[in-house]
Predict the 3D structure of the following.
Amino acid sequence: MPSFALDLTLYTTQAVVALVLAALLLHYHRVFGLVSLLQWSRSFALLAVHLVTAWYGIYWHLDNETAPMAVQLLVAAVSQVAVYGHLGFAALGARTSVHGLRKDDPVPGRVLYGALALGLVCALAWSQTGDAHMQRLFMRVGLRYLLGGTCFIAIAVALWRQPNREGLGVRVAAVAMGLFGLQMLHVWAVYLWELKHASSLPWSAFIGIFSLVTEMFAGFSLLIWLLEDERNRANRTDSALKRLRDFDAITGFPNRRRLLSDLTTLLRQTNQRTALLLLRLDQADTLSGSYGVVVLETVMAETANRLEQHARPGWPRPARLSDTRFVQTLPRVTSNAELTAIANDLLATLRIPFYVAGQELSLSASIGIALAATDSGNAEGLIAAAEAAGQRAHDEGGNRFQYFSSEMNTLALTKLGLLGELRQAFTRGELVLYYQPLVAAGFGNRLSGVEALARWQHPQRGLLLPEMFIEELEQLGMIEEFDRHVLAIACREAQDWQQRYGSEISVSVNISTRSFQNQHFAELVRSLLKECGLAPSRLELEVVESGAMDDPARAIQSLSRLRALGVRVMLDDFGTGYSSLSYLRELPVDGLKIDRSFVDDVIERPRDAAIVAATITLAHSLGLEVVVEGIETEPQLAWFSAQKVDRLQGFLFSPPLDRDALRQRLAGRDATLPRAPDSGPVV
């Protein structure tokens, strides 16, 4: 057997090394949060406990049989429980590492409890003194080395064969665990030899050194594996971040950033004719508003799939420029005829119905085409040119393609200037309201209310009608802000009429479909009424019929919220939409406003007159008020008066009046309007 001094030194060193490894693994567990590191740390901590108690029990008290039996049992129990706990935690650590578990699992805990129970049984069974003391000691020690060696050999095999191994670290750890296990089996074999032959082998004195070396190799190999694994994890994370930075998450296509980089490289490397096709779905906004973002993204993914299947060999992969725009770069184009054929093929591909969530969606696309040879020599300019061409194709009705031209660039610059001015129009007070009177039919054309009409008092271009800037407001996403602005002015002015002149006429305001469909719009109206002190009954909101019919269920909810405030709601432009009569009885509105397009026809077209008369009768039968706009002649007035409509509006009574003109009329207490247009400019 080895000398006392050498054995004490080796046991002490092994215990210190085990404690150092336990501390390091615990530290890295706290840094990286890996459960396997905590389990390995516990394993080495228990190994240190076993080494200390084993040395104490074997070479100090127990060999000389100087310790009381209770002390012998306690030391043996602690030693045996610690060593089998060491093996149990090592097995758990290996299992967690191999399977990539991120948190504790209660099932393998039973294995650990079994290991602890085995250690306690061994301590109690083989701790007696007597003639067979050494034999029992060797049996106890030999069993633990046999089980320990088998356990670490199994761990080595599991690490070597794990399916997700990456790099050299796991191989080193597997080899180290294998050597540690072999050393334990070697110790077990030596103990068996010594038990049988009652003599020591020549290298028995170095067994402790072998054990120390293999233990250190096993522990530090785990650290090597950990550091390499974290490096690989960091590399994977970096690669994923780079992919997110350069590629679209939904389609996997290059994004705008990557497109600009690739297109710049392509334009720099080749002098051949390069073309850019920018594709946009015409119904993208409708899809998002009516079906939600999930359906829109599903359609975009299917669109990407069709584009990729349509691509020809040699083409760069399509790119996703934005949520609803894709770009296909064509590096070698021989003629415009080839481009035209490609664009037509793409349009035909996207006209094939989409099937999403059990629904068939028939969509179309607009394509803008720009050529590097003539339209722009850089990536940004080429994309901008294709954007302008695509916008023109969309504005012309969609389901078509358009080549870029210099006129588009001029128009785009003009629109950009207008957009920039629109952003400042709110703060500068350039958006003003004109008011067109409404008269109560059958009461001497008495003024009953006014409709607020927005105008832009442009400092250079003069007074602009909404048709000249509403579309730009929608493109900027400012249409809801515009509606709030108009509502606030109209409510303040109506309250001012009452305070100045005692007038309680109502004010009507047209509301965009986007604002009307906003679930918080009713709360906005309530806040404005409270802020201005205006009675809800004096505010009338006009909702375009087509906007309400797009989503009747949502329209009913929005209308109900508004009417709950006491605000009157009218269905504007009635007769220009579809399925109007079928939904009319379901929509909670106060009345409808017959579109001016029907006013001209009732005199000259009997069929149109019959349709309008039937509509008026139906509305009255449902308890709805009927307002007619666009009255300009006496025959029109006579016909609609005969139909007993409730209110009328048009140039026969008055053109739109600015704020001061309306105030003068109200100040004069003249609530009866003349039966002829006022002189002055028509706005």
